[in-house]
Amino acid sequence: MAEMTATPGGGGKMSLTVKVLIGMAAGLVLGVIFNVIDSAFINTHIAGGLFAMIGKMFVNALKMLVVPLVFFSLICGVTGIGDIRVLGRVGGKSLVFYILTTGLAISIAIILALIVGPGKGFNMEGIDTSGVTGKEAPTVWNVFAAIVPTNPVAAFANGDMLQVIFYTVVLGVAVLMLGGKSKGFIEGCEYMNEVMMKVVTIVMAFAPIGVFCLIAKTFTEQGIELFGPVLAYVITLVAALFLHLFVTLMILLKIFSGLNPFIFMRKMRPA
């Protein structure tokens, strides 16, 4: 994965991150120009046709990666532990830590959103919201009950990630229980995990084009008036991510593990 985000030393090759940023900037500029021109042909066939098609293909490709990537990486992770008792201890601690950090992340996001108010001033004229309704929040008990899938195949097909994760972990435990008989299956999953990482590399190579088309389409339709609310949203999002990564998680890392956060960050940088 490091090869996608880091520039090889001395090669002078532009990193994927820089390419994506250039794609965003170019999409914004072109979208604003197209919005000012306000051509029916551009709006229908370029922005609403070509850009929309490429943008949707890229988003669909990203969604395509999620389930197989999670499945094979989790199988490899569970079987890599090797001992069911160790897996139980690690899994229990991971679940508690996951719930704790998720709660903290949501709290940070809500607080920053209340302070910044991203989206204020966004012009909703011309946007049909008649079919948009909020779902009723399920009870905590139903949330936990829904983690167990009635049909694993349907869970994979629908992308229900909690159900996919639950089933994959249970399958990994069963694989461990079979011992030596599972060697071929484990090797196959390790191979498929490497294959999926290559698929990620292939898809992400098209990220600058996909981002360019998505941004260009959006600003062609909405104009520069969208920039303020979108910028506020992006700043809020990045600030929340940075706070969670560099402050919240590093404090928890120090408390629970005693590791030096600076050394930890330096070693995880390529990932």
> Structural class of the helices, strands and pairings?
mainly alpha
Unreliable runs: 1-10
Please give the oligomerization state of what you see: single chain
Strand content: under 5%
Distance between the termini: 6 Å
Order of helices and strands: HHHHHHHHHHH
Q: Give average pLDDT, whole number.
A: 86
Number of distinct beta strands: 0
Number of discrete helical segments? 11
Principal-axes shape call: globular
Radius of gyration: 22 Å
How is the biggest beta sheet arranged?
Answer: none
Helix content: over 70%
What distinguishing features does this structure have?
disordered N terminus, globular, 271 residues, mainly alpha
Explained architecture:
The protein is mainly alpha-helical and 271 residues long. 77% of the residues lie in helices and 0% in strands. It contains eleven helices and no strands. It has helices at 2-5, 16-37, 40-81, 84-116, 140-145, 152-158, 161-177, 183-205, 207-222, 227-257, 261-268. The radius of gyration is 22 Å and the shape is globular.
In short:
By secondary structure, the chain is mainly α. The chain has helices spanning 2-5, 16-37, 40-81, 84-116, 140-145, 152-158, 161-177, 183-205, 207-222, 227-257, 261-268.
Record the SSE blueprint.
Elements: H1 2-5, H2 16-37, H3 40-81, H4 84-116, H5 140-145, H6 152-158, H7 161-177, H8 183-205, H9 207-222, H10 227-257, H11 261-268
